[in-house]
Prior knowledge:
Chain A has four helices and no strands. By secondary structure, chain A is mainly α. The two termini of chain A are 17 Å apart.
Amino acid sequence: MSDIADRVKKIVVEHLGVEADKVTESASFIDDLGADSLDTVELVMAFEEEFGIEIPDDAAETIQTFGDAVKFISEAA
Amino acid sequence: MFDLTGKAALVTGASGGIGGEIARALHGAGAVVALSGTREAPLHELAAELGERAHVLPCNLSDPAAVEALPKRAAEAMGAVDILVNNAGITRDNLFMRMSDDEWQSVIDVNLTSTFRLCRGVLRGMMKARWGRIVNITSIVGTTGNPGQGNYCAAKAGLTGMSKALAHEVASRGITVNCVAPGFIATAMTDKLNDEQKARISAQIPAGRMGEAREIAAAALYLASPEAAYVTGATLHVNGGMDMA
């Protein structure tokens, strides 16, 4: 697994309090990992800080799964 | 009784009677305060009176860019914004049939839209800190209505609804959003009334007198305190019983 994916997974595990093995490529933050809509906003904020990037609101809406997040950040970072 | 040591508070309209008293109360409880307002001289006077832990941040709330920048300036000056008191407000009174679009819009912009922007601007820091207090100063007329103040009543009632929506959203993050609704408060503005006018107003108030700015400040201080953690989406009416909503 890439360094970016590791760092994203660490944030998700810490923020949502889920087991690391539940955080799979297709795992949806809301449907599979128990996040509410405010959690997804906070995850995006945490990604922005961890990777020093800006994630605009329209892009943030497309980040639904762990895989989406890793893909977006890999392209942006 | 209430200890705000280590907390940083941004107070808008701190150049006015009520805002100044709110800043004094928060500062007196140990908070660092950022005093915002359009008139700089009274802000500097208040900061000088308070001494340490007081910052002056002039801001014209009818300027959207300046409003957007204010939370950042406050966080830079104080290290954070833990408490936001939206007290600033303007009036442009006119009878409904004579009210211009400009009179309507300027009151909505300053009293409602700027408060929305300031709340939005402080949320990120409060969410990360898992602690925050937002206190919006509304008015008795937001619930009772008042002739000649269609714009002002709309803005104040709007603040109440907005505060409740935001309170829902952020309650799980340790952030509370409440309103204080003053009734008739003795300020520089009401000092201009003659004795007969004052007597007529007082006759409508069960307490038999106008309120004092420090009585509004005490309510704001309570809602800003750690003790008020379980109070959110509420309005504290401070009006001498004039409207027991």
